[in-house]
Design brief:
Elements (H helix, E strand, L loop, with lengths): L5 E10 L2 E11 L4 E5 L6 H8 L7 E6 L4 H6 L3 E4 L13 H6 L14 H13 L15 H15 L3 E5 L7 H16 L3 E5 L6 H4 L2 E6 L1 E6 L1 H4 L2 H8 L8
Parallel strand pairs: 3-7, 3-8, 5-6, 6-7
Antiparallel strand pairs: 1-2, 1-4, 8-9
The structure holds adenosine-5'-triphosphate (ATP).
The site of adenosine-5'-triphosphate has 11 residues, from strand 2 and helix 1.
């Protein structure tokens, strides 16, 4: 069997007294898209941070392509699309500046972008259909366009792994379809993708597999099985598919 792209092995994380992850385990093969489903506070963002090496587990281990995550992060291999609430949208950065951040790991010692960096940014903007918005301040985009700008940052970075925290929150159907298509294309090119979402209806279209999180991974498998009402009831405690 090949080395998993992501291996989370019995990871426990506390924030002070709060137990955010409780011996959580998840193994993801390369070039797969996995949907991470769990209620607020179930530990989704913490799991992402552990995979990126931004949170150190109290116990257990994380390996990314068989390596400690910090090494993978240094090699600029992990693209991250944060939750909207985690971004300061008033920051004076253009869309192009945000996408150029993906090139920081590639810049030479002068830290000045070269032609190859500018070309990579232009290509990424084209791919997410934001070329016409390149010079806009990032906060002046719609919810879906903002998400696409961060996906472009990952593309410019050449990320082989993409972690997306709630990419469909505050996003209209068209942007949702564009993001879904893009992620499927990236996975077809070999990228491994982990997506947290409350939008359960979007999951079967997007994901090859799904995992239910409630501080630990309760279940991981094909979306058809994982999204069965009785399994969702176990993670959420109610009939979520029929809400709203
Ligand atoms: N920096 C922190 N300090 C203290 N507690 C934290 C911190 N970050 C998260 N927590 C707590 O850890 C638990 C898991 O939080 P986390 O953000 O990982 O959940 P989540 O599933 O991403 O939630 P949401 O869907 O609301 O974004 C929650 O109880 C949360 O309050």
């Amino acid at each position: 069997m090949s080395t998993p792209a992501i291996l989370v092995d019995k990871v426990t994380v506390h924030y002070g007294e709060v137990l955010a992850l409780d011996s959580a385990s998840l193994s993801l093969e390369p070039a797969r898209i996995c949907g991470l489903v769990g209620m607020n506070g179930s530990g989704k963002s913490t799991l992402f941070k552990a995979i990126m090496g931004m949170v150190k587990p109290d116990s257990g281990r994380v390996l990314v392509n068989g390596q400690p995550p910090v090494k993978m992060r240094r090699e600029a291999g992990i693209g991250y699309v944060p939750q909207s609430e985690d971004v300061d949208w008033a920051f004076p950065l253009s869309v192009r500046d945000v996408v150029m951040m993906g090139r920081y790991g590639h810049l030479g010692f002068t830290r000045r972008p070269r032609k190859a960096d500018r070309d990579a940014v232009d290509h990424a903007l084209e791919r997410v259909e934001l070329s016409d918005y390149a010079d806009r301040q990032i906060g002046q985009l719609s919810g879906g366009q903002k998400k696409r700008a961060f996906v472009a940052r990952g593309i410019a970075q050449g990320a082989t792994m993409m972690l997306l925290d709630e990419p469909f929150a505050g996003v209209d159907k068209r942007s949702e379809a564009t993001i879904t298509r893009l992620l499927r294309e990236l996975a077809a090119d070999g990228a491994t993708i982990l997506v947290s979402t409350h939008d359960l209806h979007a999951l079967p279209q997007l994901c090859d597999e799904a995992a239910l999180l409630m501080r630990k991974v309760l279940m991981h498998g094909s979306p058809d099985v994982v999204l069965q009402p009785e399994n969702l009831a176990m993670a959420f405690g109610l009939d979520v598919m029929n809400r709203g």
